[in-house]
């Protein structure tokens, strides 16, 4: 494996190792940390431009030899590769291999890409390393894969990888590959948490069809993809607990490991410059967008089509451009702020279902109706009916009637002229039946006017000698109230125009009485 060099059964050093490699070999057998740092922070920075000489350089094939077929551990020791401040020369190729020793590299610099496709590890930790590219499709680890503070210059590929516990990418910086992707992790499976907090992604972060056994945290991360349409492409993502697109505390490690920053802590928001696609996602607890900032072009979207989640915390900054799409989404509780939603024409909620509304801050019904109108530039009754159903379920029957009234008014604007005129008449008189009190007032006014009018009408009896005394008020009331019979309307015969007036009163009576009865029925049902 090393051009003719061989390891004797007792694990002695091969003949062609450099001094740096010989030290690494012995540290591997001893299970100890192999630290080649200079002590100068500037020189030791793996991402800086200061060159590291032969005394800090080992060949990638010697590293691969140790990991795949290394010497036995010293008596009473466990072999492991723990490198600090080491430069690895050449391509580290472990494709298809099984690595049993524990691997941890800190502050290391890789000259070329790392190839881990189809390989198997117990645990792999790379911290604050400089790596041209990590190619690890179908990688399998029994434990963690830790890549915090690493910098990847040509992307990371973890497609169909299986991580036995946690995937850690906190404060990593990942640049795009030749396909425009920073992190390509389609089909990734992580048994527990994915923490990618305060990460920088320059390109498309792809998690299509990925599965996370606990939470996925992008707290404080900065995603940007000026080269394509999507900065986060994660349709059919499954997260058993919560997706966090929220702030992270700066300068306190406790706040980059899953905790919410305390009040007064300096924070870094989650910022996304480019579209987000979470279509058909399944989330066990919540999707949290608190204080998130989305910078979109007119063609880009924050797309949550058909997602299913018990709680959606839509509490980010209002996107100035682009669209927010919730079509077909199913949410148990919607927690939102009035200032978080985009303007009219940029919000789409066709088929959006939610069971409970929990507004944060002031969110009056008039503003909520503007929210619905923003999603229905072309008339669609569904968002109005969903809001009315939710309000009625929470005991706000009056609010529900206001929403349904707004629905009718929006519908009226799309009717032809005759329909608009009739709609305005219904609105002005009885508010489409959603304000029954107004119908009762109109009935009382109509009764008073017609009582006065009929007091001047000629009223010969239908059957002379078989009629009650003439009472214009009871006669008018007999015409106004359907079903109820006061014995007046059937006893007197009106002539000419008075007949037409009586017919109009009967029609108006049916309309107004039906409206009042419907309102009373709704009131009794609510009580």
UniProtKB/TrEMBL annotation:
Which UniProt keywords are present, listed alphabetically?
Membrane, Transmembrane, Transmembrane helix
Q: Which residues cross the membrane?
A: 498-524
Note whether Transmembrane occurs among the keywords. yes
How is this protein named in the record? Oxidoreductase
What are the top taxonomic ranks of the organism? Bacteria, Bacillati, Actinomycetota, Actinomycetes, Kitasatosporales
